[in-house]
Design goal:
Helix content: 25-40%
Shape: rod-shaped
Number of strands: 12
Oligomer: single chain
GO molecular function, one term: zinc ion binding
Pfam family, one: zf-C2H2
Protein name: C2H2-type domain-containing protein
Order of helices and strands: EEHEEHEEHEEHHEEHHEEHH
Structural class: alpha+beta
Organism: Thermothelomyces thermophilus (strain ATCC 42464 / BCRC 31852 / DSM 1799)
Strand content: 5-15%
InterPro entries: Znf_C2H2-type (IPR050758), Znf_C2H2_sf (IPR036236), Znf_C2H2_type (IPR013087)
């Protein structure tokens, strides 16, 4: 219930007042916020400054959205715009590729990541399991995941963290990726020398492209992986 500001009519039900204001006073009544204003200019100022009014300036009729999220969704789906970069593309495929290249978007599940390395690590969750365990029939999406499985002691071979660490130090190129003077972090990246407590963590570091080190066959860690397979028996 309430009075109409402009014609002194009293309405017993707020719904009736709302319908009356919409019909008779559209220039001074905000339908969305259900507020009267003293003048058309006052209403215009309200619409311009309110977070509940978000206009699309790219549309000829400039539709008004109730939230910025709704406006951004409209800009992305209708105008193919990146609302972060404030740039629009010609088609949705160009926008999607921009999101992948610039905003670390996973095309498979639509999740954004803070860095390319985090995206690459996440993509492993969608990857096909192609890395076999030398000690059991299990398959893994990465070499680091396979070694982590061995370290965890869940492999049928009976291998555990101590055995994997022992094998890592027995490899003839271990001097390239181990630290004898740091018992808490006995492994290091051969390229950037970042320390690690476990060899699986070092492998994850290399797989994430955090530095230029690789796991190719001729590299120190590639040699370790080959040696590991020869020492772990199913």
């Amino acid at each position: 219930m309430g009075d109409c500001w402009h014609c002194d009519r009293y309405f017993e039900h707020s719904r009736s007042l709302h319908q009356h204001a919409q019909s008779k006073h559209p220039d001074t009544y905000c339908t969305r916020c259900r507020r009267f204003f003293s003048s058309t200019r006052a209403k215009q100022q309200h619409v311009a400054n309110s977070k509940f009014h978000n206009f699309c300036e790219r549309c000829p009729d400039q539709p008004d959205f109730a939230s910025l999220a709704e406006l951004n969704d409209h800009a992305e789906t209708v105008h193919y715009c990146c609302t972060v970069c404030d740039y629009c593309f010609n088609n949705p495929d160009q926008l999607a590729q921009h999101d992948v290249d610039e905003h670390n978007l996973c095309e498979t599940c639509g999740t954004y990541f803070s860095s390319p390395s985090n995206l690459k690590s996440h993509l492993q969750t969608h990857a096909e399991k192609t890395v076999s365990c030398p000690g059991c029939p299990k398959m893994f999406v990465s070499k680091s995941a396979m070694v982590l499985h061995l370290e965890a002691g869940t492999c049928e071979s009976g291998a555990d963290c101590d055995r994997v660490t022992e094998i890592a130090f027995e490899c003839f190129l271990s001097w390239r990726y181990t630290c004898d003077d740091n018992p808490d972090f006995p492994f290091k990246c051969p390229t950037c020398e970042t320390p690690f407590a476990w060899i699986s963590g070092l492998l994850q570091h290399v797989e994430s492209d955090s530095c230029s080190e690789a796991l190719a066959m001729g590299t120190p860690l590639g040699k370790f992986l080959r040696f590991l397979r020869s020492q772990i028996q199913a």
